[in-house]
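Appendix B. Chain record.
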Amino acid sequence: MKLFRIAIDGPSGSGKSTIAKKLASEYGLEYVDTGAMYRAMGLKILREGISCEEGPVLDELLDRTTIDFSDGKITLDGEDVSALIRTQEISMMASDCSALASVRKKLDSIQKEIGMTKNVVMDGRDICTVVMPDAEHKFYITATPEERAMRRYKELLEKGEDVNYDTILSEINERDYNDTHRAVNPLRKADDAIEIDTTHLDIDGVLELIKSKIEFAGNDA
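Structure tokens predicted for this chain:
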């Protein structure tokens, strides 16, 4: 079976998830938000009150953890946690646990299996470089830290949360550093991925640009 897969990497807040969802709808593909997987794992670590470090305790937790997607929602051990994993606390925990080899090994194996059997749009930090290096279409979506912080600031304000822009910017810079300097599969642009800077583009503009790249590649083939 010939697969049609779109792989998207990029830093936090660049618009990956929003774009990936729209592309999935546009092309009739399944959307897999791998960042949500790490957030779900971060949520479980916080709930269980264990330290985010390699060891037997974390291994045992991973062995009894199931993470899946159903109808656009992410489930943790069968519980829909979609609305629980979008806080800044969970975001930072996701960044911490994503640096651990055992966590990445478990989640990468789930993601690779999905990518080998389904037509998907998958976004994350190492989709183009590790999970689906043979994807038919690969993109690296980015934006300035200031723009990404402002987007997150506005999003949280709309949800009624008491937030501070400077704090969010600091956390984004910290997460960028962690993501690009971790020992296991650090965030980087794949050599053959197309880079899209969304700093001065709205969602529709980014979507049309990516679609034009996909259609050009299809015609070229």
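Further analysis of this model is presented in Appendix C.
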